[in-house]
Amino acid sequence: MIYLFHGSDVGKIRAKAFAWAAAARAKAPDAAYIRLQGKEITEAALYDAIGAQGLFFSKSLILIDEPFSDSETGETVLGLLDALAQTDNPVAILAPKLLAARVKKIEALATKVFKEDAVAVRARGFNGSLVNALAAKKGDVLWQELKRAERLGDAPEMLHGLLHWKARDLMQKGSPSWKKEEARELSVQLIEMVSRARSGDLPLSESLERFALKL
User: Fold this and answer.
1) What is the reported pTM?
2) Contacts of 26 (CB under 8 A, 6+ apart)
3) Which of 17, 61, 63, 175 is most buried (most C-beta within 10 Å)?
4) Each residue of 2-18: pLDDT tens digit?
5) Which residues contact 137 (CB under 8 A, 6 or more apart)?
6) Nearest to 215 by CA among 163, 171, 151, 180
């Protein structure tokens, strides 16, 4: 069973995929949870995952995390779509910004498709000051930019999307202010922020302000 998560809003669709995985694990706590990413996504690993059974579980929950960020792993997943669709194990394919041709190919075999597209970019353009404040790890400046953007009418979801995009960029490139592992933790923190907002714990706008003040 394939569950496809895609769309141009990377932060939202990643949050949705991990929220779905958490809910699925809560329903079947004895099932094995297998997350594959990067070079872990091989033909052998995928076959092992969809066929995994153990003494205390009969099914596995599999999350294939952004396989199309690499051409080799992407082709591996496409080549095994039939096997992934036919397994009784739920297989979540998390693929933000997936090309339309690939979306169509996976949709044809998917049990369910989730899509989150980014809010249209505002006329005044990309908010470089916001992402630069995060990149420099200047929490006070980031807070000021968040408040300024809010006054100008920017939605919290859009601001969060920009920050998460920058976190992913820092994960790949690093910076004088952020080690790659720190940027990875930053990305996870921002994803969890959306999940908490959707559960009603704290509005996203307030979460972003608290995040900035603690940076």
Assistant:
1) 0.58
2) none
3) 17
4) 999 999 998 889 999 99
5) 177, 178, 215
6) 163
